[in-house]
Design a protein that fits this description.
Elements lengths: L1 H17 L1 H6 L6 H29 L6 H8 L4 H10 L2 H18 L4 H19 L4
Length: 135
Amino acid sequence: MEASLVSWLRQLDDDALRGRLARRFAHPDCTSWQAWWALGGVLYAAVMGCFFAVSLLAFAIGQDSGVLLGLAVLLPWPALPLVSLLRRGRPVALGAAAALLALVQCLLLSGAWGIQLAYLPLLVVGVAVCAVPGR
């Protein structure tokens, strides 16, 4: 079991370093670097969205005002351009769209510093993906 896990991790590392893993799940327009940033942003947004959804639903048990609006604002919208980037390419435009959506969500949540800071990694991912031109 342990030897197979080490072998799998070594293969994953080799694939990532040679760019083979990025070619398996990313559009050819994306460089390996952009694909890894986008995948990391999607995974972060999914975890963050689940956390916010569970938090709001737990809060909604006691009261029901504004929960749907809160869910709509806090859903990980910046992940959608990143998913599209991995499937359809156009990393510069879609990275900028992800950064813009993250910035809009930060501005909508004025005064909620803890939640606003949670969107900063998505803003960084979007800027990082669009700053480097694709292939």
